[in-house]
């Protein structure tokens, strides 16, 4: 099956990008916003907000929820949102080429020895023989949009297993919830997602684990912190304050859930904060266990793995999903954090 997704298709997946840029950048709203997803990888966002780290840094930030990475990039470009932490997508890169957004740091990453994103097969596909990613040719793999992190993960699997990605039917379903539903009901054969979502599906018997993304992309910088080009250049004090506040929350998260260097009472306090936003429909103890079991490293101080980011940029170019002339300088402002 032909999975080739062109730049034109990737741009279609960006939704209101053209409208946002055509209308120009509106005047700043009084309240500033941080774009987030209902995922455990966004735990530092929730911790910084609930513990008052943003207020301590002089920022009046509210949380604004999204269902996928591409709309977050559009919201940053239009300055409806000031900051976001999500995957580097084709949409984000195209906006950077238009001088609308900048990546200013790195967040979630795959780390050897830590369970990261899990490759899942639907129960139907697993019973039909999809027990290893090498059996993906001829089957469907869920992504949110063309140019999303899920698209890149599918590429890394195909590259490692030695088959053309064009032999996999990539199914863009726009939203995380739609992907969960499609895999659970066998409408798609496979998907790869962060462990807090994957392990819940595994526990419910809705999917089967057939691999780990860390086996195929061990140094993958999964998510990055970004802001508008205006904020990065003209609002340096505010942007630096955001990096400092977010870094405090990252330290809390890693200590509690990755490095296990805090006591149970402190871990419970942080888990209850995250539970307000992630798996809030589940009993606290079950959600906490899933959070601990599925914790992935988030880079201290929002440090950025530039090697992984450049690999992603080069791949998007090679696939024709972004302009071939996009430069490192257009996409990144390297002055805010340490580079790995």
Describe, in plain words, how this protein is organized in 3D.
It is found in: Periplasm. Belongs to the bacterial solute-binding protein SsuA/TauA family. This protein folds into two domains: 7-109 and 221-331, Periplasmic binding protein-like II (D-Maltodextrin-Binding Protein, domain 2), CATH 3.40.190; 118-215, Periplasmic binding protein-like II (D-Maltodextrin-Binding Protein, domain 2). Helix content is 43%, strand content 14%. The protein has helices spanning 7-12, 17-23, 43-50, 53-56, 69-77, 90-97, 123-127, 149-161, 176-184, 195-203, 229-234, 236-258, 264-275, 284-293, 306-318, 328-331; strands at 32-36, 61-65, 83-86, 101-106, 118-122, 140-143, 169-172, 190-193, 207-212, 224-228. The protein has a five-stranded mixed β-sheet, with helices on both faces. It is globular. The model is unreliable at 7-29 (pLDDT under 50).
Give a brief outline of the structure:
With 340 residues, the protein is an alpha/beta fold.
End-to-end separation in angstroms reads 38 Å
Q: Strands across the major sheet, in which order?
A: 2-1-3-10-4
Rg: 19 Å
The SSE string, one letter per element, is HHEHHEHEHEEHEHEHEHEEHHHHHH
CATH-scheme architecture of the largest domain: 3-Layer(aba) Sandwich
Arithmetic mean pLDDT: 90
Q: What fraction, in percent, of the residue positions are helical? A: 40-55%
Which structural class do the helices and strands define?
alpha/beta
Find the CATH topology of the largest domain: D-Maltodextrin-Binding Protein, domain 2
The amount of beta strand, in percent, is 5-15%
**Broad CATH class of the largest domain:** Alpha Beta
Number of domains: 2
Number of helices: 16
* Total strands: 10
User: Largest sheet, if any?
Assistant: 5 strands, mixed
Protein name: ABC transporter substrate-binding protein
GO biological process, one term: alkanesulfonate transmembrane transport
Subcellular location: Periplasm
Domain SsuA/THI5-like: 41-252
């Amino acid at each position: 099956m032909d999975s080739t997704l062109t730049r034109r298709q990737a741009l279609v997946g960006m939704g209101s990008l053209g409208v946002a840029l055509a209308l120009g950048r509106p005047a700043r709203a009084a309240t500033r916003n941080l774009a987030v997803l209902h995922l455990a990888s966004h735990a530092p966002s929730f911790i910084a907000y609930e513990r008052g780290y943003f207020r301590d840094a002089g920022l009046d930030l509210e949380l604004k929820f999204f269902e996928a990475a591409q709309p977050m990039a559009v919201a940053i470009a239009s300055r409806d949102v000031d900051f976001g932490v999500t995957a580097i997508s084709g949409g984000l890169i195209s906006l950077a080429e238009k001088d609308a957004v900048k990546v200013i740091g790195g967040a979630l990453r795959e780390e050897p020895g830590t369970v990261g994103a899990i490759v899942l097969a639907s129960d139907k596909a697993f019973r039909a023989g999809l027990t290893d990613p090498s059996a993906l040719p001829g089957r469907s793999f869920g992504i949110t949009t063309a140019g999303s992190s899920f698209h890149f993960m599918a590429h890394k699997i195909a590259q490692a297993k030695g088959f053309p990605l064009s032999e996999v039917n990539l199914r863009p379903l726009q939203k995380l919830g739609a992907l969960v539903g499609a895999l659970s009901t066998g409408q798609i054969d496979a998907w790869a997602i962060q462990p807090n979502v994957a392990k819940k599906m595994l526990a419910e018997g809705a999917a089967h684990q057939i691999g780990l993304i860390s086996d195929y992309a061990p140094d993958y910088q999964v998510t990055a912190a970004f802001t508008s080009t205006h904020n990065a250049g003209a609002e340096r004090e505010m942007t630096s304050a955001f990096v400092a506040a977010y870094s405090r929350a990252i330290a809390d998260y890693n200590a509690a859930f990755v490095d296990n260097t805090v006591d149970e009472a402190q871990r419970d306090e942080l888990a209850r904060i995250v539970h307000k936003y992630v798996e809030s429909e589940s009993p606290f103890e079950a959600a906490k266990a899933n959070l601990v079991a599925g914790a992935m490293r988030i880079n201290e101080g929002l440090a950025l793995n530039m090697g992984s980011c450049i690999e992603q940029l080069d791949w998007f170019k090679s696939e024709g999903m972004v302009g071939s002339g996009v430069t490192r300088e257009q996409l990144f402002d390297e002055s805010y954090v340490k580079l790995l």
